[in-house]
Amino acid sequence: MFIKINGIYLFYEVQGNGKPFILLHGNLESHKIFDVLMGELSKNFTVYAIDSRDHGQSTRTNKVSYDQLTEDVASFIRELNLDKPLLYGLSDGAIVGLLLASRYPDLLSKLIASGPNSSPDTIRKGWLISIKISYFLMRKDKLRMMLEEPHIIAEDLKKIKVPTLVLAGEREFATDEDLRFIAKNIPNGTLKVLKGENHSSYAVHSPKLYQIIEPFILD
Questions:
Q1: CATH number for the domain including 101?
Q2: How many separate domains does the chain show?
Q3: pLDDT, tens digit only, all 219 positions of the chain
Q4: Within a 10 A sphere around the Cβ of 81, how many other Cβ atoms?
Q5: Which residues pair with 8 in a beta bridge?
Q6: 123 secondary structure, DSSP code
Q7: Residue 86 belongs to what domain range?
Q8: Is 106 exposed, middle or buried (CB count within 10 Å of its CB: 0-12, 13-18, 19+)?
């Protein structure tokens, strides 16, 4: 399905019945990475899996920023009159979730942020080199975005009111210090580090993810 917001068309898939639950993918991905998770969540929730702007089937744009992605999701929630949805975001989706919950503290009911980073400076060296090489080869603005944004500070995180679960793999994109910084500064935040996992191994097309988040979302 498509919805027109902020001058673009966002594609999304919807499944299930119950309280609304939004899924946000990472950079260079689409909503399809949540195929397994949607099947599980749709037993208890109405699940909305969105293709971010310049991803999947959504409108291609020349410029992309975390600010734009955040406002797209805020507009999506308002246009569909979704009542305090839960939100799960992976990587870029996690950053958008944090920004959304900080900027609009009453919009969500719960947030799960998988593999966020507060700044490009907190990306581990190996991952940073990989992004720089990819940007050099592909020249995609969404990769440029990862090298220049976000800039989330403690005061932003302190504005988040909703219960927040920060998930991270043992071999993560961001430094351990940054993940602790994010979770510590969210008033109702918790950090869970998953042994043996990397930035997205437990989340993309994975049957593991639902079991990991089930206690948090059904509490």
A1: 3.40.50.1820
A2: 1
A3: 999 999 999 999 999 999 999 999 999 999 999 999 999 999 999 999 999 999 999 999 999 999 999 999 999 999 999 999 999 999 999 999 999 999 999 999 999 999 999 999 999 999 999 999 999 999 999 999 999 999 999 999 999 999 999 999 999 999 999 999 999 999 999 999 999 999 999 999 999 999 999 999 998
A4: 7
A5: 5
A6: B
A7: 2-217
A8: exposed
